[in-house]
């Protein structure tokens, strides 16, 4: 069963902050050059503005990770959030059906 939750403005802000923090950390640790950070940041903002739901978010993060591997931890964390949401929905529906 596919779960496709809306993506709120506060969620967009949270993800934007996570991605910005990841860029800063990658710069500080010497994983990337400043040019890469600028390219990534320039790519993120307009893409993030178009996201309407969690499925689009996960697809975006997957694309981001394929372009810049230092975003992999953000992608993996959001996949976990998605999985937890699916499990909770399934359990809730199972519980409702048993009543």
Question: How many strand elements?
Answer: 0
The helix content, as a percent range, equals over 70%
For the residues shown, what is the average pLDDT? 89
Rg result = 16 Å
- Gap between N and C termini, in Å? 21 Å
Largest sheet: none
The figure for the number of domains is 1
Order of helices and strands: HHHH
Please provide a brief summary of the model.
The protein is an all-alpha fold. The chain has four helices and no strands. It has helices at residues 9-28, 34-50, 54-67, 72-98.
What can you see in these coordinates?
The chain is mainly α and 99 residues long. It has one domain (9-98). 79% of the residues lie in helices and 0% in strands. It is built from four helices and no strands. It has helices at residues 9-28, 34-50, 54-67, 72-98. The mean pLDDT is 89.
Give the SSE map.
Layout: H1 9-28, H2 34-50, H3 54-67, H4 72-98
Helix pairs in contact: 1-2, 3-4
